[in-house]
Amino acid sequence: MWYWTPEGRRVLDGTGGLWCVNAGHCPEKIVQAVSEQVGILDYAPTFQMSHPLASQFADKILQDMVPGLGFGHVFFANCGSTAVDSALKIALAYHRAKGNASKFKFIGRELGYHGVGFGGISVGGIVGNRKTFACQLLPGVDHLPHTLDLKRSAFSKGMPEHGGEEMASVLESIIALHDASSIAAVIVEPVSGSAGVIIPPKGYLQKLKEICVKNDILLIFDEVITGVGRVCDPFASQYFGVIPDMIVTAKGMTNGTIPCGAVISQKHIYEAVTSSTKLGSAPANIEFLHGYTYSGNPVAMAAGLATLEVLKDINAWERSRAMAPYFEEKIHSLRGVTEMLDIRSIGMMGAIQLTPYPGRPTEKAFQVFVDCFEKGLLIRATGDTLALSPPLICEKEHIDMMFDILKSVLHSLD
Ligand SMILES: Cc1ncc(COP(=O)(O)O)c(C=O)c1O
User: Fold this and answer.
1) How many helices (H) and strands (E) does the chain have?
2) How far does residue 227's CA lie from ligand 1's centre (Å)?
3) Distance CA 414, CA 355 (A)
4) Is 220 helix (H, G, I), strand (E, B) or coil?
5) Which is the closest atom of ligand 1 to the Cα of 248?
6) Segment 77-133, tens digit of pLDDT
7) CATH 3.40.640.10 matches 28-313
8) Which end of the chain is least crowded, N or C, by CB within 10 Å?
9) What is the band of 350 on the pLDDT scale with cuts at 50, 70, 90?
10) Per-residue pLDDT averaged across 45-64, rounded?
């Protein structure tokens, strides 16, 4: 649960590193697995060949994290950004394989974050990440409106009551504008993380799925933050009861130790993509012309397999489910401590949206971040919002400490 500064000061990790250290820092099994693996098989290609750990980790992800939901294949990438790019490319390859090459457009969402590749910033909707590069984005991308509705839903606990169907129905107008025959996929984070924990209103994700199915548009959930127990289940897809065509994961899958990302894909997608490229039984045939030197890197696979073991040892999903109500109670107890616009939380992730200093956006939240660090707590400041996502091993005493420090810093603002 702790970082140590170079001066030897202890800092409580209130953010699981950068939303990735879900099993806590340096669990013995992960340290050992990584250290040993470097000396056994440090690297092996996964182009037209593989090594056992890559298949083992893929199988384990399917069996332990998404059993019985139709997922059948895992494509390994280097990180969240490359996994997002991979998912977008798989969506294009899928429609082309089905004879629908005109379906090439993507629909993202305002305030969405999908990493920093050109694909990710194009479908993403955080202005700061786009404007510097705006002339070089992917063509054929449109965006759903974001789902933050402070007027109706500020200080909601869990999923907001208002606007779910109505907000998701905007997808129908976007489809009407572009025509379904031109749209490959919709990509959203089930809960927007980087934009400050924006939680979908009730019925929203269900409606998106329904519209996608009706229009033969693939639904991609970017679960780089929401996955691996952050929202009380292996993936938020299960928590919300909406199963997409592809899940993008990274961060927590190796507990942040070794970079890794993955696309978990429904069987029918894999089958469509690969059957179209199979040239009889030619052994040299490449099923999907995409991949990274470090896809399935053995050390990352060892880290991932050990991470799944540790998550099992600590009963991560149950633990997250058991602790979430306490986390929710504590974060909402900060209401009114200083001027704020909203408090949001779901599972083991939460945010406090501050009222910014007039004309000086982001300054207040950054000040809180620095002051918390000085007092021994790592939080994350994103825009005017403070975000919290402690490792899932946290105990009540850690949560108490987090919110005591945060409260005293917020008090000192006014
Ligand atoms: C939802 C989401 N997608 C993609 C990414 C990009 O991941 P990475 O930084 O590993 O490339 C992030 C990173 O925070 C993310 O939150």
Assistant:
1) 16, 14
2) 11
3) 12
4) strand
5) 3
6) 999 999 999 999 999 999 999 999 999 999 999 999 999 999 999 999 998 888 888
7) yes
8) C
9) very high
10) 96
Q: Is 231 in the pocket of ligand 1 (CB under 6 A)?
A: no
- CA–CA dist 46, 43 (Å, integer): 10
pTM, to two decimals: 0.97
Residues in Cβ contact with 379 at an 8 Å cutoff, skipping those fewer than 6 apart: 14, 15, 368, 369, 372, 386, 387, 388, 402, 406
Name the nearest CA neighbour of 366 among 356, 358, 414.
356
Average pLDDT, the chain: 96
Distance 248 CA to ligand 1 centre (A): 9
Ligand 1 geometric centre to CA of 80 (Å): 4
* Beta strands 340-346; 385-388: pairing state: unpaired
pLDDT (0 to 100) of residue 234: 98
Beta pairing class for 377-378 and 261-266 = unpaired
Fold held by 2-23+315-412: Aspartate Aminotransferase, domain 1 (3.90.1150)
**pLDDT of 135:** 75
Q: Which of 63, 41, 18 is nearest to 302 (CA)?
A: 41
Tokens of 410: 């917020």
pLDDT (0 to 100) of residue 282: 60
Q: Whose CA is nearest to atom 7 of ligand 1?
A: 80
pLDDT at 280 over 90: no
Rounded to the nearest 5°, which phi and psi values hold at 262? -160, 155
Task: Output the CA 235–ligand 1 centroid distance in Å.
Answer: 15
Rounded Cα distance, 259 and 25, in Å:
15
Q: What pLDDT digit, counting tens, does each position of 286-325 carry?
A: 788 899 999 999 999 999 999 999 999 999 999 999 999 9
Give the DSSP H or E segment for 264: strand 261-266
Bridge partners for 161 per DSSP:
none
pLDDT tens string 215-242 = 999 999 999 999 999 999 999 999 999 9
**Do 245 and 265 meet the contact criterion of CB atoms below 8 Å apart?**
yes
Write down the domain spans for the chain: 2-23+315-412, 28-313
68 CB neighbour count, 10 Å cutoff: 7
Give the CA angle between residues 224, 383, 327 to the nearest 5°: 60
